[in-house]
Amino acid sequence: MIHSLFMVNSHRDIFMEKHWKTAVKRSICDYFFNALEKASSPEDIPPVISTPHHYLITVYRDRLYFVSVIGKEVQPLFVIEFLHRIMDTFVEYFNECSERVIKENYVVVYELLEEMLDNGFPLATESNVLKELIKPPNILRTVVNTVTGQSNVADHLPTGQLSNIPWRRSGVKYASNEAYFDVTEEVDAIIDRSGSTVFAEIHGSIDACVKLTGMPDLTLSFVNPRMLDDVSFHPCVRFKRWENEKVLSFVPPDGNFTLCSYHIGSQGMVSIPIYVKHNVHYAGSGGKFEVTVGSRHTMGKIIEDLRISAVMPKQVTNVNLLPSQGEYSFKPVEKEVVWDVGRMAPGKPPSIKGILSLQAGVPAPEEKPTVTVHFKIQQLAISGLRVNRLDMYSEKYKPFKGVKYITKAGKFQVRT
Amino acid sequence: RYDDLKNMLDQNKDFLKLEAMKRIIGMIAKGKNASSLFPAVVKNVACKNIEVKKLVYVYLERYAEEQQDLALLSISTFQRGLKDHNQLIRASALRVLSSIRVPIIVPIMMLAIKDGMTDMSPFVRKTAAHAIPKLYSLDPDQKESLIEIIDKLLSDRTTLVAGSVVMAYQEVCPERVDLVHRHFRKLCNLLVDVDEWGQIAILSMLTRYARTQFTDPNKYYDSFDGIADKPFYEEESSSDSDEEKIKEKLPKYVMDPDHRLLLKCSKPLLQSRNSAVVMAVAQLYYHLGPRQEVSVVAKALVRLLRGRREVQAVVLQNIASMTLMRKGIFEAFLKSFYVRSTDPTHIRVMKLEVLTNLATESNISIILREFQTYVRSSDKQFVAHTIQAIARCATNIEEVTDTCLAGLVSLLSNRDEAVVAESIVVIKKLLQMNPSQHCDIIKHMARLVDNIQVPMAKASILWLIGEYSEFVPKIAPDVLRKAVKHFPSQENIVKLQIINLAAKLFITNQRQTKLLAQYVLQLGKYDQSYDIRDRSRFIRHLIMPSSELANGQIHKHAKKILLAPKPAPVLESPFKGRDAYQLGSLSHAINAEANGYQKLPDFPETQPDPSVRTVEPVTTDRRRPGRTARSKPPKKKSFYSDEDSSEESESGSSSSGSEDSESDSGDSSYSESESGSDETEGPDSRVSDSDKVKKKTVTPALAAASDSGRSHSEESSGESGSSSSEEESSEEEVKPPPKRQTKRKKETVNLLDLDDFSPPSVSPSKSSTSLLTPMLASDLQGLSLGGANHVEMAGTSSGKSYELLHRVTGGGLSAKYRYPRSPCIYSDTMITVELEFTNSSDSPIQNIHIGEKKLQAGLKVHDFAEIDAIEPGSSKTSTMGIDFCDTTQPLVFDICTKSRKFNVSVKIPVGELVKPVSMAQTEFLNQQGILSGMNENKGKVNVPETIQSSINKKVMEIVNVCIVPSTQSNIHRYAGKTAHGGSVLLLSIDLSESGEAKLIVNCDKMVIGSMVFKQVKEAL
Questions:
Q1: Which residue of A123, B313, B391, B514 is most buried, as measured by CB atoms within 10 A?
Q2: Where in the sequence does UniProt note compositional bias of the Low complexity kind (chain B) (predicted)?
């Protein structure tokens, strides 16, 4: 499947390569660079590029390109999904996926790539298993290793791969047993210029941090499971029980993982916790810009981390704004205005207004900037989803359990 | 150059070696050539330090190909590794050995894969499966033997292996559909538990498979979609009699149960977190599902649009293809395709495509409103695409053509030239459809021609005016005049249109334009471009023929030629034609055939034989001896307990076994009952018999179930019903006391609770083979199976009885024993012996029980229940269980009555030491391969023609074995295992030569093997 992998940084240097079959020359990446040249932004590079003998499938993330070389027909999503899985694994090992950490930890990276893919086919991709095969680096171990000359390869061999629950290693032990679940919901919305909602949906996910001894079997039930009609699960969740009883029953992996993610579509009513009033217009060599935000339907919760940004048309040379709260910045190159409102205190809704300076001698722009909104609301799941209870079977101790709700703005855009 | 590294590698200290290896790996990672270090590195392959070893492996995989001779030095280390007791070391040795790509070691690789294939560790077997495509790419000549290995590995039941072997199958022999038949149902049922990458491989393989094996579920609808172009569900309500008639005429489509099974089993995977899995299911439904069911995938695909950018791009591409063919699926999700300002251009363009495809009369107004927003975007490429999209909506939906046109015309006053140009091009196409109504638009455009600089747009206007000059007779010559002025500075495409315009006007309006036309053609004559010169020469001769050539033939038709009515262009989706490729494939993504792409076959016209997928029940393979089996039970057990812990709470006492068999039989009940009835309708008078038996048994069985006072869920009572129906059927002939029966029943239920059965994979064999599967697992299967088969079984087993006690020596009490061949209820390893006591004296005999037993080493006996009394002239039966320890030594014991004691002995014919085991042919051959040499007895027997037909019966009279369904009609195979040790006994008779048969008996226990051999030989 995957012949080779090239890692390319934003300066278009190939800083690492790995071949699972006969080595493919670096020059194959020229096709990729050509495509990159044509693309207007790094985001815009097509994921699949065809070359005379091979196919290149590329993912772009964290300002890194992973360019994989494919020789034969294969589902592109297979490869894309896998490349992202590799990046996820790096993040899990090194806390970030950047050129620096990859170069610093090239031995671990190479060992990981070796374990994850055999002859181009995925072999071990569960992080629990990988972590047993190859220990993640940490400072203490690095020091110890350099002093003693020991290695970060586990000298005992992992059991997880061989057990029937490949995502959990056996023999887990914790002094304090805890299981936390974060219900995070992101609101995606497009609001049109008149303030009516064109489109809104909620993407939620339940992220878990489970530190439990032994082989616990957990059951998570909801007060209103009917809300979830479009869900995707971590492999540990038993499909059947969900279908029959609408409870999540699973043997959790050890540590952090995303238990499930769900999607509440545009058909259902989605209440939007925020409203934005705006007024942008151009006149001659200047323009007016005014935005006011306010909250509604937040059930008494306070909106935090409120941030409003808008990319101005090319013709805008500068802005001069006055926020009633928080501060703003303007990046002249990207033409982006960012207004950091912060916590939205109850009372007068925060607003920002001021003047835009336009480039002289050029007709005023036609398009108006789209306003993107970011916010966070603690202790609220905007969909109304509530966890009922968490039960544990097959282990004796009493775990500490906790559930947290957060609502965030996802792709929340207001057209002006 | 790298002397320092070489030195470090030669040192004895591990940390120096490690340091050196790390640096070498760093070189490889950066793409520097490190091949000159090969000799120094390869020495360290035997290094004790695991990390050094791993890094050496990495190095070898990279460079061994280039330094084949030196690489051979490392082979012996791997071979040693293959024999290691640690499974992970075996696996990694196999992995590296197969990865170094040195053609000389192909035979070694082959051996290693063969060993790995039968390894007891599923992890090693997985690695072996991975090694298959590697070997294949190294040496394609090995294909045949690799296919054999794949065939064997396909029967592996562990989820770990399933995905990998299917990948190997796809790589090596995707054309061998026949290999999949037997595993189809198993793969379907395992699907949910396989790892995500394996799921993708299996799903795509099964899609292809299903395309060759099932008929098109939509054919029925398609055939009258042509007549009445309506979605089918409306037809139900519409009472159009014509349609009704057609409906009746067409044969009712019945989906193959296996087809249904596949759809059912893949559906939950739509909830996978892995987008590739979701896509794989979606394409499976799209390509295989009945039209009305395809919509289930929409929700999941729309969910993927929240994923990573690359995922979005690919998914949108596929959705675009799907919407082009079947609009309805995604109609409800229209708004999910609205463009966001943060989307990169290629995603926007694809969203536009989807929106356009989804446009219908009812939603066009919202879509157009959305498009209006897009037109104002600052991304000009996107705006251009939007304009095209609007035009497509306009052509597809007549109601809005005018609105769209008006909208597009308003765009003509846009300040951005690109927008205007694109609009012109698009308007030109639209106008062609209906020019007469829109002459004001044409005028408007004529006015624009001076300002527009984009060649394509300019050319379009000129063409429009030339074509429709009749609507703008006054303006047209003026436009030409202006255009001619700038002729030399125009692009080629514009020049051509100027010439065209001149020619057309010359024909319609010669008076005003003759001079202009001549001027243009003169300019064209000396143009730099061939094309222009050619065109002007051609036009000149067409419209103003010079006198010498003037036969005037063509000239007469010039008007017809130039002003022929031209068909309006059809605005097509750029995605048209992509549906030739399988959805989700690389070829689909690049819209060209990728290397190794195989076209998805069309559905066959007629359904191929569905019975090829039926598999005999593999009874309790956990009891099968040998390496593979030993490793399996714990695996199996926990794997299913994982499943059933989720079920237990609801179904109470029903255990994992019952649950599985339940779901299995549920899935396949259709086929089972079908083949079941095949059997009953079969050749002879048995029909009525078995029917009777069935009828009789059902009621008492159910009654018994409720009698036993247990609260069962419905399914478990159904199952115990079936097991007791079997019970009763033997009762028909034996008539054991009813007391025993209930007792036995309880026992069965207990076993049910305690035991974990491997799922008795869906069952019955072809109608020609009668099955002997008295194991509990098979008892648990559907009623229909129980009835027909077990009657026959009782017929063969109730045969001989042996004398235990003669009535003379017993003082009137006589006893006989026989082997009913029913599974022993006391213990797994015991054999059931049925004792029949008859009182031929004239007084009752009381308190018959077992007295002193002289047990040889290892023998175990479960006494029969004491018999209170036997009236004179009557007889009673009782059963006891004896564990003969797989020997034929007799059991000697005393039978005591109230007053006397008789010393008796029970002898066992060797054939009764065996219990039948059903296995598949491949499994059989596999086992036979293992049990060769000393464990094999071979010989030739004369078999008269008369016996040949009844050979199964003959053999089974002697040995308690089960028939292995065979693909060759003249080879009979039987399988069993010894009751105590569970050693496999295999018997095969090859009748290929006339009158003489080759008899082969394989058994782990050599003594038993040879004794069985002798007995069978005598009997035949």
A1: B391
A2: 757-770
Closest approach of A16 to chain B, Cα-based (Å) = 5
Minimum Cα–Cα distance from B158: chain A residue:
A164
Instruction: Tell me whether A192 touches chain B (CB under 8 Å).
Output: yes
How is residue B179 written in tokens?
């290999």
Kindly state the tokens that stand for B795: 């017929």
Helix (H) or strand (E) holding B590: helix B586-590
| Chain A contact present for B11, CB below 8 A | no
The strand pairing partners of B833, in sequence order, are B880
Class of domain A2-148: alpha beta
Spatial CB neighbours of B659, under 8 Å, sequence gap ≥ 6: B643, B644, B647, B651
Which burial class, exposed, middle or buried, applies to B216 when counting CB atoms under 10 A from its CB (0-12, 13-18, 19+)? middle
Distance separating alpha carbons of residues B558 and B544, to the nearest angstrom: 10
Which residues of chain B register pLDDT less than 50?
A: 223-249, 618-796, 798
Q: Tell me the C-alpha to C-alpha distance, in Å, between residue B350 and each of A79, B380, B382, B580.
A: 21, 15, 10, 19
CATH architecture of B801-908: Sandwich (2.60)
The superfamily in CATH containing domain A178-270+380-415 is Mu homology domain, subdomain B (2.60.40.1170)
Q: What is the pLDDT of residue B295?
A: 83
Report which DSSP code applies to B810: T
Helix (H) or strand (E) holding A267, with range, is: none
| Over residues A209-220, mean pLDDT | 88
- Chain A contact for B646 (CB, 8 A cutoff): yes
Q: Is the pTM for the entire model greater than 0.95? A: no
Give the chain A residue whose CA is nearest to the CA of B13: A149
Q: What is the pLDDT of residues A244-270, one digit of tens each?
A: 888 899 988 888 889 998 888 766 577
Q: Which amino acid, B57? A: Y
- Name, in order, each residue with C-beta under 8 angstroms of B339's C-beta and a sequence gap of 6 or more: B348, B351, B352, B370, B374, B382
CA distances from B911 to A310, B341, B600, B730, B857 (A): 87, 80, 52, 20, 21
CA distance B740 to B730: 13
So what's the pLDDT on residue B653?
Answer: 40
What are the tens digits of pLDDT across the range A98-142?
888 888 888 889 888 988 888 888 888 887 777 777 777 766 556
The amino acid occupying position B131 is: A
Considering the four listed CATH numbers 3.30.310.10, 3.30.559.70, 3.20.20.370, 3.30.1380.10, the one that applies to the domain covering B914-1018 is 3.30.310.10
